[in-house]
Amino acid sequence: MDYTPARFHASARALPEPGEAFAYTPENQARFDANVTRYPPDQRKSAILYAVYLAQGQQGYLTGAAMQHVAQQIGCTAAEVEDVVSYYTMFFTRPVGTYVLNVCRTLSCALLGAERVTEELSRVLGIRPGETDPTGTFTLLEVECLGACDRAPVVMVNDDWHERLAPEQVEQFAEALRTRGVASLSGCHLRKEGGPDHLRQGYGGPPKPSAEAEGPPLRRS
What we know:
The chain has helices at 5-11, 26-36, 48-59, 64-74, 78-87, 107-111, 114-125, 170-180, 196-201, 211-214, and strands at 99-104, 131-132, 138-143, 154-157, 160-163.
């Protein structure tokens, strides 16, 4: 169940009309102005990630007009902004659902059932990885490591982690998003805490040390 850009673009909703203008809201402009003061005047490009994040948060994805606006704010070219946007998987240049479900597929999550979670999400939502549902509510993606290996498998919904999500919990999980919104599950732990013992389960448990591995007893002074 691999993500393909062509499948994602084909399922995207209609883009705004060409030439549609974009500008930060007064609130986002104030946020940008406060953030950029953290950097020396000749290093405004250091604020580019935050600037792009604000633009995407304002309209859900990044149009050419939005990237041009970011370039003007930063004092760089639109091509430089596009380079950043195309590098990071968290930025979108096509419309996505209200809830973007990023399922980690890297080693620890894969060993602890991420593929089954993806299959269940696909079944429950009626879409495949890389697609957005017809109502514009959900986009399902498979991504690389989300940095929570000891709580695998992990699904990130927009900006929030949801850890140790079991396949049998997927219907409950999706319904909670539909009816109560992502905030109701923010940072949730649907099962008990993770940690090294949980992570070892995906590797078949810790091997028993042999006598040779244990080595001689430590000498105490």
